[in-house]
Design a protein that fits this description.
Number of strands: 4
Strand content: 5-15%
Helix content: 55-70%
Number of domains: 2
Order of helices and strands: EHEHEEHHHHHHH
Distance between the termini: 46 Å
Oligomer: single chain
Structural class: alpha+beta
Low-confidence stretches: none
CATH architecture of the largest domain: Up-down Bundle
Shape: globular
Length: 217
């Protein structure tokens, strides 16, 4: 029986879930949720996800409504080995920390721009918002100074999650590759991955176009 993934291509968290599904070859049916038409506020959707967010994963009677939790669950259920989500306690703790870093720092700083601009009609990005994003790039650079990927020397679900957000932040604040060379190299390598080409590149560009339209630039 196929799982159901409710998603929006422009959403970085949804793209994380989509890329993880692709990577693990999860038997999943993907269903678009049109936020501009308010489909996420329908009684049917709110019953699944009271937070009215995307993505939402439905696996039989199990419903998971956070992209990081979805990635962890799918890695445990469908991973052929533990390379993408280590079972070793210390290694997993580092991957988890990077996932939470994505949630509390990277995505939080992106959302501080996208919500006012896309939903509330704000026409500017403040200097503080710009500086906060640049600071976040610096944190990513620091992590990548210690390992090839964001958590370990191998690709993990933390890279997929962070990549979905950082590749979207670029449309708000372009990355200075000279200042953050390791981050630039990591982004270039991530973008080449088949799962990124299939489920991230176009969605990130879609979000970028929407931001540009809303900002009137």
């Amino acid at each position: 029986m196929s799982l159901m993934l409710y998603k929006l291509n422009a959403s970085p968290p949804a793209r994380t879930a989509m890329m993880v599904c692709e990577l693990f070859k999860v038997p999943v049916k993907m269903v678009d949720v049109n936020l501009s038409k308010g489909e996420h506020f329908s009684p049917e959707y709110l019953k699944r996800n009271p937070l009215h967010t995307v993505p939402t994963l439905e696996d039989g009677d199990l419903i998971i409504t956070d992209s990081h939790a979805i990635a962890m669950y799918l890695a445990d259920k469908y991973g052929k080995d533990d390379s993408l989500y280590p079972k070793d306690l210390k290694s997993r703790a580092i991957v988890n920390q990077r996932l939470f870093f994505d949630s509390t720092v990277l995505f939080s700083r992106m959302r501080s721009v996208t919500v006012p601009v896309i939903i509330e009609g704000c026409k500017t990005v403040t200097e503080k918002q710009i500086n906060d994003i640049i600071e976040a790039y610096g944190y990513v650079e620091t992590y990548l100074s210690n390992t090839k990927f964001i958590a370990t020397n191998n690709l993990t679900i933390a890279d997929i999650s962070a990549y979905a957000v950082v590749s979207s932040l670029l449309f708000i604040v372009p990355l200075d590759g000279a200042k953050f060379p390791k981050t630039q190299t990591w982004l270039n390598e991530m973008e080449k991955k088949p799962f990124a080409q299939k489920y991230n590149v176009n969605g990130a560009a879609e979000l970028g176009a929407l931001l540009k339209e809303k900002l009137g630039s």
